[in-house]
Amino acid sequence: MFNPKHILFIILILELNFVKAQTSKSDTLVVDTTVRNTHSPLKATLMSTVVPGLGQVYNKKYWKVPIVYAGIGTSLYFAISNHNEYSRFRKAYLIRIDSDANSIDEFEGVLTEDNLRKNMDVYRRNRDFSYLIAGLIYVFNIVDAAVDAHLFTFPVNDNLSLNFQPTFFITENNQLNKGFSIRINL
Question: Which of 22, 89, 117, 122 has the smallest set of CB atoms within 10 Å of its CB?
């Protein structure tokens, strides 16, 4: 059945938990309902939609603005660069396939028509992908502004703690069971 050592050990653990519970602070969170929420998620979303990064400024997350502009600017730079290369190869390909024998492109004797077409396809795909990345960064900017605005007035307690301790309990079969318990105070 039960060993007397097990019973003493369980009593000791229960007393320690009881003493700890009496000395710990209250787990209730007091929310002041008189404070009105003046921070508007809709306003942050609209601001970020009109001007990327403006919603982050409204949310007082200034450090995110350079990230937004660097992401959009870099992807647009690569989109424009890839478009220029695509235009070069497209122009050369169109000159190559026209019926005028006197027209000579810049890649004459270097690339075949098939190579010109493949290069066109590569640069077009890269251009389109860069535009897609710029659009996704723009959308993430809007979503980030909306989420930050929703969480702007979220109460944050400075006393975040994690309690990890051994646990002992008795099963339905009157067996002593051991384990660990985790308690998180937010």
Answer: 22
Residue 40, helix vs strand vs coil: coil
* Contact call for residues 179 and 167 (beta carbons, < 8 A): yes
What tokens appear for 135 in the block? 């659009």
Tallying the residues shown for the chain, one arrives at 186
pLDDT tens by residue, the chain, 186 residues = 556 566 656 665 656 555 454 554 555 666 555 555 578 999 999 999 999 999 999 999 999 999 999 999 999 999 999 999 999 999 999 988 887 777 888 888 898 889 999 999 999 999 999 999 999 999 999 999 999 999 988 777 677 677 888 888 888 888 888 888 887 766
**CB distance 53 to 141 below 8 Å:** yes
